[in-house]
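Task card 7
Instruction: Convert sequence to structure tokens.
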Amino acid sequence: RLRSLYYLAASKMLKQVVGKATIERPVRHSKIWEGHVGARLCAYDSKVRAAIQRMQDGIDSSRDVKRDRVKFHNLMTLYSVLMFCFCTSCRPVRAPFLRRQRIDEETGFAYLADKDDDAHHKLRLIWVPDLCQEQMLKYEEHCARLALHHSEIRDWPDPCFFLTKNREPIRVRLGTLPAGLEPFLQLPPNHYRVYLRHRLLEAGTPPEIVMAWLGHAFAGEEIWNVHSAMSAMEYRVCISNYLMPILEKDLKWKVM
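Output:
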């Protein structure tokens, strides 16, 4: 396998370097380190868990309240989009969501262009868990009911949208996500990528699996490549074993 070739080459180089590094050198600067170690702006588990719980409570309390329809829709949008991002590591550059029709029913795989233009030169393969697909279905059903009474929503090009106070749809983007997220978690919209990278590595997930999940696969290990050293099906099994316990058992994501 390609990975074993890299491993053997790196091991050989390391032995050569260690063999020469036998001379002890005094520390030049004894000043105590005051910088940052690890990922900055990485959320606390308790804060993320509490934010998810508050979103769930907000959806439940506004679901059947007529005057809160805009609030309910915006919370459903925020919750569904964030669940999708937590499951797939989707970057919120373009619309951070997909229509369910774009997901393969048998495998759960889909192609995502989260930092691409309309030419789609930088597509990547993602796996969408059943939990997320069920939430996507709930959101689509909600939007379909909403479109019956609002004609401007029927032809909306994106799979998700927020509503203004006048019930006009606006895009879900980096510029619009912070306003919805801020009451629950005061971190950048893409905080989940840093947070879950840390959680996955801490749980013992193989680094190459984490990198593939983030869309930063090592050369030769791109799961969408026919000649990849990593099987897409093996990737799906592995990321599921490590990611889903974090999302379902620890963070308590559920279908709303």
